Amino acid sequence: AFESALCKVEGPTPKGQVKPENALRAALRRWLDGLLPGAVRWAVSRLAAETPAVAAMVAKADEPDWSAGGIFDDIIDAISEAFIAGADDGTLTTAVSLQDPPASALAYAKDRAAELVGKRKVGDVLIDNPNARFVISDALREDVHDLVRQAIDEGWSPQRLASDLRDSFGAWRAETISRTETGVAYGNGAAQVYTEAGVEHVEILDGEGCLPQGHDDAAPAPDG
Fold first, then answer.
1. In this structure, what is the dihedral angle of CA atoms 98, 101, 105, 110, given to the nearest 10 degrees?
2. Distance, CA of 120 to CA of 7 (rounded, Å)
3. Residue 38 burial (10 A CB sphere; 0-12, 13-18, 19+)
4. What are the residues whose beta carbons fall under 8 Å from the beta carbon of 108, sequence distance 6 or more?
5. pTM
6. What are residue 125's DSSP bridge partners?
7. pLDDT tens digit string along 111-125?
């Protein structure tokens, strides 16, 4: 239950996680900023189709390409670096020597990055993965569709819909994804080193009240 224990972050981010977290956040911001104009055009055009009075104000737009594949390499680099940082910090409390970055770091990063963009790796080839978890673009697209449905049902103006859409593409989303993904990668890197050192139990100290209270993912409470 190592990953599930990382249910939230309170207090300072581990030093080794800061750089990859910032790099991933910056990549996500660039992607979101580039996607926003097309998403707004598409959403407002859908609203206009339901409200003839404003139809002349907007041009019809095709739904944007939601793929996050353009930041795939940036995701790999950030997650791999976070994994290595966690492994490196793990060596401080074990006898494991980390002369070279573990090969598993890049393998983990490639697999997780592929999953985040809705793909999976088969050899060196990326193919669609219908079972990928937490795909960035899927969650974003669903948020946009939900806002459009709400705007139509409640008779929003195009201006209000555009404003709410900008909030959905805001800095908070990049912050949440980057902190979560690099945090889990960091923890996995440390866990690997502990495993290689023969450590069987690790006490995880994560925000006050996180364990055992505040845990809603069905993970068991920690024992002594």
1. 180
2. 25
3. middle
4. 79, 80, 83, 185, 188
5. 0.75
6. 122
7. 888 888 888 877 777
The span from the CA of 181 to the CA of 116, in Å, is: 10
Q: What span, in angstroms and rounded, lies between the C-alpha atoms of 14 and 94?
A: 18
158-168 and 136-154 helices, crossing angle to 10°: 160
pLDDT in tens, 136-161: 898 899 999 999 999 988 989 999 99
Tell me the Cα Rg of the chain. Answer: 21
Distance CA 154, CA 148 (A): 10
pLDDT at site 218: 55
What's the CA gap between 126 and 113, in Å, rounded?
Answer: 11
- Token pair belonging to 187: 């923890």
Helices assigned H by DSSP within the chain: 15-50, 72-90, 103-116, 136-154, 158-168, 171-196
Alpha carbon distance 177, 116 (integer Å): 10
Listed as ranges, residues in the chain with pLDDT below 70 are: 1-13, 51-60, 90-102, 203-224
Phi, psi of 125 (to 5 degrees): -110, 135
Return the structure tokens found at 181. Answer: 């993904």
Name the residue with tokens 């993970």: 219
Backbone angles phi, psi at 121, to 5 degrees: -95, 130
